[in-house]
Amino acid sequence: MIDIRNPGDGFKSLRARIGALGPLRDGDRGAEGAPLTVGEWALLIDDIVAHPEDNTEGLWNVATPEEDGSEYDAIFVGGGASGRFGSAFLKARGGRQLTIDAWPFLGGSCPHQACVPHHLFSEAARELDLARHMQGRLWYPPFDEKRASIAEIVALFKAGRMYPHAIMNWQSKEQLDMEFILNAPATIIDEHTVEVEGQRFQARNLVLCTGARTMYPDVPGIATKGVYDFATLIEDLDYEPNRCVIIGGSKVALEYGSFFQATGCRTTILTRSPLMRTASLHHVDAGLREYVVAMMADRGIEIVEGAELLEVLGNGKVTGVRYTEPGGAVRQIDTDFVFVGTGERPDLRMYAPLGLATDERGFVIADRHMRTSVPGVYAAGDLIGPPMEMFKARKCGVGAARNIMGEDYEFDFTDYPDFLHTTYEVTWCGLSEAEARARYRNVIKIQMPPDDADPETFALPAAEGSMLYAFTRPVLSGWLKLVIDADSRKILGAHHVGYGAKDAFQYIDYLIRRPEGFTMDQMAELNELFLNPEHFIQLCRLRAGQSSPVNL
């Protein structure tokens, strides 16, 4: 173990090793004996990730009995979104926590392999699609497919991914005063005891936060080189793919497929369920889905719905896939790159001593207090099943902490604002139009383009991020819909495809879910700043004068 809390010989040796790793981006080095700076954490994390065999000691930031002889209120197993936020909240409430993670950093897979790279890839896809569309006009040069490289963008991400982790490690130690052990796996002994590097720790409660991993289909050839998921794409890709087949219709499939296609890697999506109709997505409006899928196809992505993967072909490396179409015909696609986007499941082997109850899909069963079937054991985040969303993970961890510290707190995550990336930001909250019409007598909608318009000539919703599309090919500028109960004038749902709107939806969702709701008249009273998502404000204002509002 290396005690990073105290500047003894082990810590001094660690500082010396960091000093030999190379220059820092911003010259961020601390004095000998001082706590590690963000820059020093970045160098250390990068070195451990790159050379795990040479960095086997845990990084301990744990109070000694003399410093804090109190019992741990909770041990958080896993330091990702659930574990870090839960630990910080419990500490803030006056509790004592210990967070343990096998990785040398806090923050989990989001900044390392999942959320952050997909945002980078989606931004790259947006830029590439615009450059391809605008080539030869204005200042845009002819588009060169060979200049867009999946491997190069992955390398760009890997070169900078240690900095978010470094900030979280530094913040958790220096600002949040959290106790943690990193770069050391935990062994569960019982519902109160965890062992790390031969030392046992006891707590009144355990909070399990170890997330989930991609579930690969059980078909021949699935382990062939050239088959990747979101994590192994980052860690193992060592060539530039030329042709991609994506297995599955999850958010990951839509987002990464759009990125691959934008780079010039011709992409086919094979999915059992229709895109955006999977069980993990809720309240998806039919109009929003139709626009998103049509724009993916417009950009060249081939989508085969109702497909069943039979086999990954190859002789040491992927050369193709075989699948069945809905009618039963067997087809084959030649490819050098297969990407699995079939969803995630947790690995619960480390929790065998606890005897946790699980559901039919293998997720840990937890109630709204985050309590499992074992008294004193809580579970949070992806471990307890969909939605696999960051807000849910963070709030689950906080919810467990609140209950451990004596508060009767329930977290209901069955309804929430949702979004995904294709080339566009796709965002929605509340009810779809079909759901609203099934529940309310008099439903109207405000929509652009309207159903009876020609989208190729209807240059709205032109807005932030889509102006060049609106002036060159309007159908590419986006789509939006507001669903309203005309009797109460309350907004029931909001749906948007475009750019710059998604941050507003966390507030729209909150407002429409209040007991008093949020009316079209209140929307019309807001002071808009620009066009997007303020289209909702302007369009509501155009209808707010009607005593009996109708569609717009």
Question: Based on CA inertia axes, which overall geometry fits?
Answer: globular
Give start-end ranges of low-pLDDT stretches.
Answer: none
Supply the number of helical segments.
Answer: 16
What percent of residues adopt helix (DSSP H or I)? 25-40%
CATH superfamily name of the domain at 424-543?
Answer: FAD/NAD-linked reductase, C-terminal dimerisation domain
Assign the structural class, choosing from mainly alpha, mainly beta, alpha/beta, alpha+beta, or little secondary structure.
Answer: alpha/beta
Largest sheet: 9 strands, mixed
Portion in beta strands: 15-25%
Under CATH, the topology of the domain at 424-543 is which? Enolase-like, domain 1
Number of strands: 24
CATH class of the domain at 424-543: Alpha Beta
CATH architecture of the domain at 424-543: 2-Layer Sandwich
